């Protein structure tokens, strides 16, 4: 098992930026890690993912605005979010799946151990 703790959420105006962080309690040799967003009663939406080969994948709605990265030494996943829009408002949750090999697979089906999430609110 692994524990994940997210931080960096908050309230910003449209056009603003936030940087989310997710610290993992352990590392894996092969994995996919990513961010999804979800509201109670709704399906998960994969936002961005990175795999152990460094390949990244993004939802079409965030391409060109969000950047995912992973610091192996710190076991920390980041999501740099620029030019935020009101429709980006949501609970952002990070997850790691050590059975996943390609980020493009994880983005379609976000799965794995997850953290409690961090709330992002974007005002128009």
What's the short version?
The chain is mainly beta and 124 residues long.
Label this structure with key terms.
124 residues; mainly beta; seven-stranded mixed sheet; four-stranded antiparallel sheet; 1 helix; 5% helix; globular
Spell out the blueprint of helices and strands.
Layout: E1 4-7, E2 10-13, E3 18-24, E4 32-37, E5 45-51, E6 56-58, E7 66-71, E8 76-81, E9 90-97, H1 103-108, E10 113-114, E11 118-123
Parallel strand pairs: 2-11
Antiparallel strand pairs: 1-3, 3-8, 4-5, 4-9, 5-6, 7-8, 9-10, 9-11
Give an account of the 3D structure.
The protein is mainly β. Helices cover 5% and strands 48% of the residues. It contains one helix and eleven strands. The model has no long low-confidence stretch (mean pLDDT 95). The N and C termini lie far apart (40 Å). The protein is globular.
């Amino acid at each position: 098992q692994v524990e994940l703790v997210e931080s960096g959420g908050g309230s910003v105006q449209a056009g603003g930026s936030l940087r989310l962080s997710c610290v993992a309690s352990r590392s894996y040799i092969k994995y996919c890690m990513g961010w999804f967003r979800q509201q109670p009663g709704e399906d998960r939406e994969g936002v961005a993912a990175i795999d152990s080969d460094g390949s990244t994948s993004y939802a079409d709605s965030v391409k060109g605005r969000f950047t995912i990265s992973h610091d192996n030494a710190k076991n920390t996943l980041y999501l740099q979010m620029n030019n935020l829009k009101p429709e980006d408002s949501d609970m952002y949750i990070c997850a790691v799946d050590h059975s996943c090999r390609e980020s493009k697979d994880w983005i379609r089906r976000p799965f794995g151990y997850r953290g409690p999430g961090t709330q992002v609110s974007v005002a128009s």
